[in-house]
Predict the structure of AQP7 protein.
Amino acid sequence: LVGLSSVAQVILGRGEFGQYFSINLGFGIGVTLGIHAAGGISGAHLNAAITLTHCLLGSLPWKKLPFYVLGQFLGSFLAAATVFGIYYEALYDYTKGNFTVTGPNATAGIFSTYPAPYMSLTRGFFVEFIATTMLFLGILVIHDEKNNAALKGTQALLTGILVLGIGLSMGMNTGYSMNPSRDLPPRIFTAIAGWGLDVFRAGPYWWWIPLVASPLGCLFGVLIHKLFIDLHNQPVLDSEKEKGQPGMEVS
Protein backbone atom coordinates (compact mmCIF):
# COMPACT_ATOMS: atom_id res chain seq x y z
CA LEU A 1 0.00 0.00 0.00
CA VAL A 2 2.75 2.47 0.95
CA GLY A 3 4.90 1.47 -2.02
CA LEU A 4 2.18 1.66 -4.67
CA SER A 5 0.90 4.93 -3.22
CA SER A 6 4.35 6.45 -3.54
CA VAL A 7 4.42 5.47 -7.24
CA ALA A 8 0.95 6.94 -7.77
CA GLN A 9 1.93 10.22 -6.13
CA VAL A 10 5.06 10.61 -8.26
CA ILE A 11 3.36 9.75 -11.57
CA LEU A 12 0.00 11.46 -11.06
CA GLY A 13 1.66 14.47 -9.44
CA ARG A 14 3.84 14.84 -12.55
CA GLY A 15 6.98 15.01 -10.44
CA GLU A 16 5.77 17.78 -8.15
CA PHE A 17 5.08 15.51 -5.19
CA GLY A 18 8.13 13.25 -5.24
CA GLN A 19 10.81 11.76 -7.43
CA TYR A 20 12.25 8.29 -8.10
CA PHE A 21 13.89 8.30 -4.68
CA SER A 22 10.44 8.73 -3.11
CA ILE A 23 9.27 5.46 -4.68
CA ASN A 24 12.26 3.52 -3.38
CA LEU A 25 11.88 5.02 0.06
CA GLY A 26 8.16 4.21 0.07
CA PHE A 27 8.78 0.54 -0.68
CA GLY A 28 11.57 0.39 1.89
CA ILE A 29 9.31 1.84 4.59
CA GLY A 30 6.48 -0.47 3.55
CA VAL A 31 8.67 -3.56 3.86
CA THR A 32 9.91 -2.42 7.27
CA LEU A 33 6.36 -1.92 8.56
CA GLY A 34 5.24 -5.24 7.09
CA ILE A 35 8.02 -7.12 8.87
CA HIS A 36 7.20 -5.42 12.17
CA ALA A 37 3.50 -6.25 11.72
CA ALA A 38 3.89 -9.93 10.83
CA GLY A 39 7.35 -10.86 12.10
CA GLY A 40 6.22 -12.44 15.34
CA ILE A 41 3.21 -14.13 13.79
CA SER A 42 4.56 -15.79 10.65
CA GLY A 43 8.16 -14.69 10.30
CA ALA A 44 6.93 -11.91 8.01
CA HIS A 45 6.54 -13.87 4.78
CA LEU A 46 5.82 -11.05 2.36
CA ASN A 47 7.33 -12.63 -0.75
CA ALA A 48 6.10 -15.82 -2.46
CA ALA A 49 9.54 -16.50 -3.94
CA ILE A 50 11.15 -16.43 -0.48
CA THR A 51 8.36 -18.53 1.02
CA LEU A 52 8.78 -21.14 -1.73
CA THR A 53 12.55 -21.14 -1.18
CA HIS A 54 12.10 -21.80 2.54
CA CYS A 55 9.87 -24.76 1.67
CA LEU A 56 12.47 -26.13 -0.74
CA LEU A 57 15.14 -25.79 1.95
CA GLY A 58 12.98 -27.60 4.49
CA SER A 59 12.76 -24.66 6.89
CA LEU A 60 9.03 -24.21 6.30
CA PRO A 61 6.41 -26.98 6.04
CA TRP A 62 4.91 -27.33 2.57
CA LYS A 63 1.41 -27.36 4.05
CA LYS A 64 1.86 -23.69 5.01
CA LEU A 65 2.82 -22.58 1.49
CA PRO A 66 -0.71 -22.16 0.04
CA PHE A 67 -1.91 -20.23 3.09
CA TYR A 68 1.08 -17.88 3.13
CA VAL A 69 0.90 -17.24 -0.62
CA LEU A 70 -2.86 -16.72 -0.45
CA GLY A 71 -2.36 -14.16 2.32
CA GLN A 72 0.34 -12.39 0.30
CA PHE A 73 -1.73 -12.31 -2.89
CA LEU A 74 -4.89 -11.16 -1.10
CA GLY A 75 -3.02 -8.39 0.72
CA SER A 76 -1.36 -7.21 -2.48
CA PHE A 77 -4.64 -7.26 -4.44
CA LEU A 78 -6.43 -5.27 -1.73
CA ALA A 79 -3.53 -2.80 -1.60
CA ALA A 80 -3.90 -2.15 -5.34
CA ALA A 81 -7.65 -1.69 -4.95
CA THR A 82 -7.10 0.72 -2.06
CA VAL A 83 -4.58 2.81 -4.01
CA PHE A 84 -7.03 2.89 -6.93
CA GLY A 85 -9.68 4.24 -4.56
CA ILE A 86 -7.36 6.82 -2.99
CA TYR A 87 -6.22 8.20 -6.35
CA TYR A 88 -9.39 7.60 -8.38
CA GLU A 89 -10.01 11.28 -9.22
CA ALA A 90 -6.32 11.91 -9.85
CA LEU A 91 -6.20 8.95 -12.26
CA TYR A 92 -9.14 10.30 -14.24
CA ASP A 93 -7.69 13.80 -14.30
CA TYR A 94 -4.33 12.47 -15.49
CA THR A 95 -5.68 10.09 -18.15
CA LYS A 96 -9.02 11.73 -19.05
CA GLY A 97 -10.56 8.34 -18.32
CA ASN A 98 -8.34 6.45 -20.79
CA PHE A 99 -6.36 3.93 -18.75
CA THR A 100 -3.37 2.78 -20.80
CA VAL A 101 -0.47 0.42 -20.21
CA THR A 102 2.02 2.14 -22.53
CA GLY A 103 2.36 5.61 -23.96
CA PRO A 104 2.92 9.10 -22.55
CA ASN A 105 0.05 8.89 -20.04
CA ALA A 106 0.43 5.23 -19.09
CA THR A 107 -0.65 4.47 -15.53
CA ALA A 108 -0.52 0.66 -15.28
CA GLY A 109 3.05 1.03 -13.98
CA ILE A 110 1.63 2.49 -10.78
CA PHE A 111 0.48 -0.98 -9.79
CA SER A 112 2.85 -3.51 -11.40
CA THR A 113 6.30 -3.55 -12.94
CA TYR A 114 7.04 -3.19 -16.64
CA PRO A 115 10.42 -3.20 -18.38
CA ALA A 116 11.89 -0.08 -19.96
CA PRO A 117 11.26 0.11 -23.73
CA TYR A 118 14.89 -0.67 -24.51
CA MET A 119 14.94 -3.88 -22.42
CA SER A 120 14.72 -7.35 -23.97
CA LEU A 121 13.00 -10.19 -22.12
CA THR A 122 16.30 -12.01 -21.71
CA ARG A 123 18.08 -9.02 -20.24
CA GLY A 124 15.08 -8.18 -18.09
CA PHE A 125 15.03 -11.72 -16.74
CA PHE A 126 18.70 -11.38 -15.82
CA VAL A 127 18.11 -8.06 -14.03
CA GLU A 128 15.24 -9.47 -11.95
CA PHE A 129 17.27 -12.60 -11.22
CA ILE A 130 20.24 -10.60 -9.90
CA ALA A 131 18.06 -8.17 -7.94
CA THR A 132 16.25 -11.02 -6.17
CA THR A 133 19.56 -12.79 -5.55
CA MET A 134 20.80 -9.69 -3.75
CA LEU A 135 17.53 -9.40 -1.83
CA PHE A 136 17.58 -12.90 -0.38
CA LEU A 137 21.34 -12.95 0.10
CA GLY A 138 21.02 -9.73 2.08
CA ILE A 139 18.19 -11.17 4.19
CA LEU A 140 20.26 -14.29 4.93
CA VAL A 141 23.22 -12.15 5.95
CA ILE A 142 21.10 -9.94 8.20
CA HIS A 143 19.75 -12.99 10.06
CA ASP A 144 22.95 -15.08 10.07
CA GLU A 145 23.52 -15.71 13.78
CA LYS A 146 26.77 -17.59 13.10
CA ASN A 147 28.38 -14.74 11.24
CA ASN A 148 27.70 -11.07 11.94
CA ALA A 149 23.95 -10.87 12.38
CA ALA A 150 22.13 -7.59 12.82
CA LEU A 151 21.37 -6.46 16.33
CA LYS A 152 18.10 -7.82 17.64
CA GLY A 153 15.25 -5.51 16.73
CA THR A 154 17.01 -3.91 13.76
CA GLN A 155 16.36 -6.66 11.21
CA ALA A 156 13.18 -5.07 9.88
CA LEU A 157 14.82 -1.68 9.40
CA LEU A 158 17.88 -3.18 7.70
CA THR A 159 15.69 -5.22 5.36
CA GLY A 160 13.83 -2.05 4.42
CA ILE A 161 17.16 -0.32 3.78
CA LEU A 162 18.20 -3.33 1.68
CA VAL A 163 15.10 -2.93 -0.51
CA LEU A 164 15.80 0.80 -0.74
CA GLY A 165 19.39 0.12 -1.84
CA ILE A 166 18.37 -2.38 -4.51
CA GLY A 167 15.80 0.05 -5.87
CA LEU A 168 18.31 2.88 -5.99
CA SER A 169 20.89 0.75 -7.79
CA MET A 170 18.92 -1.72 -9.95
CA GLY A 171 15.43 -0.30 -10.36
CA MET A 172 15.70 1.63 -13.62
CA ASN A 173 15.47 -1.25 -16.11
CA THR A 174 12.60 -3.36 -14.80
CA GLY A 175 11.13 -1.76 -11.68
CA TYR A 176 12.76 -4.38 -9.42
CA SER A 177 9.71 -6.52 -8.66
CA MET A 178 11.69 -9.33 -6.93
CA ASN A 179 8.37 -10.68 -5.66
CA PRO A 180 5.52 -12.52 -7.43
CA SER A 181 3.20 -11.44 -4.61
CA ARG A 182 3.99 -7.79 -5.25
CA ASP A 183 3.54 -7.96 -9.03
CA LEU A 184 0.85 -10.44 -10.12
CA PRO A 185 -2.14 -9.54 -7.88
CA PRO A 186 -2.04 -5.81 -8.75
CA ARG A 187 -1.68 -6.78 -12.41
CA ILE A 188 -4.84 -8.86 -12.14
CA PHE A 189 -6.57 -5.94 -10.44
CA THR A 190 -5.64 -3.53 -13.22
CA ALA A 191 -6.91 -5.99 -15.83
CA ILE A 192 -10.27 -5.94 -14.04
CA ALA A 193 -10.33 -2.21 -13.21
CA GLY A 194 -10.08 -0.85 -16.74
CA TRP A 195 -6.62 -1.44 -18.20
CA GLY A 196 -7.64 -4.72 -19.80
CA LEU A 197 -5.56 -7.65 -20.93
CA ASP A 198 -2.83 -5.36 -22.23
CA VAL A 199 -1.33 -5.59 -18.75
CA PHE A 200 -0.36 -9.18 -19.66
CA ARG A 201 0.65 -8.46 -23.26
CA ALA A 202 2.94 -5.49 -22.59
CA GLY A 203 6.62 -6.00 -22.28
CA PRO A 204 6.04 -8.06 -24.48
CA TYR A 205 4.37 -10.59 -22.16
CA TRP A 206 6.52 -9.43 -19.27
CA TRP A 207 4.10 -10.66 -16.60
CA TRP A 208 5.69 -14.11 -16.19
CA ILE A 209 9.25 -12.85 -15.66
CA PRO A 210 8.81 -11.85 -11.97
CA LEU A 211 7.08 -15.19 -11.34
CA VAL A 212 10.04 -17.23 -12.59
CA ALA A 213 13.13 -15.07 -12.14
CA SER A 214 12.41 -14.32 -8.47
CA PRO A 215 12.40 -17.91 -7.13
CA LEU A 216 15.48 -18.76 -9.18
CA GLY A 217 17.22 -15.65 -7.84
CA CYS A 218 16.38 -16.68 -4.26
CA LEU A 219 17.89 -20.13 -4.81
CA PHE A 220 21.04 -18.59 -6.26
CA GLY A 221 21.26 -16.29 -3.24
CA VAL A 222 21.11 -19.35 -0.97
CA LEU A 223 23.88 -20.98 -2.98
CA ILE A 224 26.15 -17.93 -2.71
CA HIS A 225 25.51 -17.64 1.03
CA LYS A 226 26.23 -21.33 1.56
CA LEU A 227 29.43 -21.48 -0.49
CA PHE A 228 31.04 -18.19 0.47
CA ILE A 229 29.71 -17.45 3.97
CA ASP A 230 27.99 -20.30 5.78
CA LEU A 231 30.64 -22.95 5.07
CA HIS A 232 33.30 -20.60 6.45
CA ASN A 233 31.49 -19.55 9.61
CA GLN A 234 33.49 -20.50 12.70
CA PRO A 235 31.60 -22.64 15.23
CA VAL A 236 30.75 -20.89 18.46
CA LEU A 237 32.57 -22.70 21.25
CA ASP A 238 30.81 -23.38 24.52
CA SER A 239 33.56 -21.55 26.36
CA GLU A 240 32.94 -18.45 24.24
CA LYS A 241 29.22 -18.64 24.94
CA GLU A 242 29.95 -18.65 28.63
CA LYS A 243 32.29 -15.67 28.60
CA GLY A 244 29.48 -13.28 29.33
CA GLN A 245 28.12 -15.35 32.24
CA PRO A 246 29.01 -14.49 35.87
CA GLY A 247 32.01 -16.46 37.09
CA MET A 248 32.11 -18.68 40.20
CA GLU A 249 34.79 -18.25 42.79
CA VAL A 250 36.39 -21.52 43.87
CA SER A 251 38.98 -22.20 46.53
